[in-house]
Here is the input.
Amino acid sequence: MTHIDAGAELDPVHPVPVPATPATGLSAAEVAERIASGQVNDVPVRNSRSMADIVRANVFTRFNAIIGVLWLVMLFVAPFQDSLFGYVIIANTGIGIIQEWRAKKTLDSLAVIGEARPTVRRDGVALEVGTSDIVLDDLIEIGPGDKAVVDGVCVEADGLEIDESLLTGEADPVVKQPGDKVMSGSFVVAGGGAFRATKVGREAYAAQLAEEASRFTLVHSELRSGISTILKYVTWMMIPAATGLVITQLVVKSNDLKESIARTVGGIVPMVPEGLVLLTSVAFAIGVIRLGRKQCLVQELPAIEGLARVDTVCLDKTGTLTEGGMDVTELRPLNGSDESYVRKVLGALGESDPRPNASLQAIIDAYPDAEDWRCTESLPFSSARKFSGATLSEGNGESSTWLLGAPDVLLAADDPALAETERLNEQGLRVLLLTRAVRNLDEAEVAQGSRATALVALEQRLRPDAADTLRYFAEQNVRAKVISGDNAVSVGAVAGKLGLTGATVDARALPADKEGMAKALDEGTVFGRVTPQQKRDMVGALQSHGHTVAMTGDGVNDVLALKDADIGVSMGSGSEATRAVAQIVLLNNSFATLPSVVAEGRRVIGNITRVATLFLVKTVYSVLLAVLVVCWRVEYPFLPRHLTLLSTLTIGVPAFFLALAPNTERAKPHFVRRVMRYAIPGGLLAGIATFVTYLIARHYYTGRDALDAETSVATLTLFLISMWVLAIIARPYTWWRVALVASMGAGFLLVLVVPSLQDFFALRLVGVTMPWIAVGISVVAAAVLEFTWRWIDRRVPA
Here is the structure.
């Protein structure tokens, strides 16, 4: 192969090389000079929001602004207890900030562990540095799986092939020669080399594309988008209801101005489901913290939710079902080849690759290099080719060219050696074929006419936890598809050892069209001889049939599929490129961590669906009560202190515990529909029952303190119905759920019987008749609610 002096860069106009960074890289003095002048790769780490962003996101919200203005009004016109809702908002916001800050600390500490550490050459010595420590003109060494973290110009190339598909959309790898541009965000698929950094920091191409990696795929969160939709409709409902309430209380009813304002605010505040957004953020944040303790880096928070919704998980065999290392179990010479000679060839081939993959590393461990053999030219391994090669100068001065790779790719279909390969594959062994080539390495059909020399059988180490993880997915009705570049029979044997059953398919026989491929994928379980582009196509085909797909992998050949999958999961020991595009990185390289991620996602989805119903029942009955008050032109039945008490006991405190409780329910789609089909009838019943009680009380009570008595029985009715809603939401019951509901009821009872609390909350039940009427109306409403929700469960699918 042709090489150009590593210390030269091709001038774009003149073909004569011009001086550039020496092959030894920058000196320590030159590095210090560039750091001093600010020529460093100072792109901010994107793993989490800054503290300022966290505070801003939690404080400056639309509903905080509404509540804040109303709180300021109440501080001036009403007693302290009517402004309690403002302090609750401050507490909620503080909790949100603290929890997200804890999640940020967890993310940042894990990100340091999983951070890419490029190799740079300085003073002639190769050393690993942090991404932010790269300076302008640094000489950066790259090999298979490495991602270019800055822009540069190639100065050394040894069969260097770079995939730029994440930037340009072009799927085919680009062969790089000295003088060619290297763009940040691209990654090496074969070969190796070095490039000089020409643009660092925010000037780099990928940095200009929104801090790289995350801009390629942002995980869709049905929870977040659903809550945004709900809040949009709530806002539109609030505007006319609140306007009518203001007019009614301030104009139609000639009450004391301060009390009219207080009752107006009391009607508006409960319309705002302010705690719903907080609890969603807290649930995600605590999920990140819990998974962080298990060495699982969640690069995009909604990925926790996404994996819980997955119904198909595509697994790469190597590095996922098997451990990275392999062992040579047998060397079988073919066509009368001498075994001792073959061992020397394999040893020299192993030394020819500076960055050997797991298969070649096993060969290096088994067959040490002969000192008098050396490599004069090499062809790096590529997932698309399925083989590598080298031209060797033997100890006796002769030269020979060898290929090492997949037998069914290098051999003709009728070659007798394939039968032996098949027998070894059926035992779950990985088999490589060594052939002697008759063509030059740079020829397109280099494998044509080559002579089979030996078979090398490799045993793969199964992950001890893989079988249990696959069993978990099967129990959860999540289909597992093993997609590998290895021989299909070998992959099928490995999958069989792990208890995975189903048809084994050679991907070379798969239909090219998406529909045909999707049908084949539905029928098969194990797929071998899959090319990187096919992996990507297979993910797309599954998605076209409505499947939510997760893809796991650790090799550079998995990057395209990881990028396109709904959720990409990378091993921590995987290539830098896979970690960059994955939403979840398993830093402990344990496939067994995935069930924990699924469980965490289900906890978040199931619990937020529960507590969202609580919040939105309150919103519905608040809007309804405002409308009824406007239509009947009466005083609003509640002061802010009453609704603060009700919200705290029936929603705020219980929702916090329910949102963080264990929950193994299977994640279900249509979040908005599922929540609203319960919230609307629940809110309507609560609002109607409360207003009926209030109207009856208005006819029953007379005198100066009648309004306070009317408010007290209306509050009792609303509390009892809200408690029944909570009791339904808390099912299925456990001891702590029963204790939670009971303690909330005890809290309200305490307010009713302690004189100081009665005065503080302006709650005093007058007489016996009207309170018992309130209880009776509440019981009837609770029975109707129970029947209605059960009917909805049967007749109105989510």
About this structure: The chain has 27 helices and 23 strands. The CA atoms of residues 60 and 399 lie 72 Å apart.
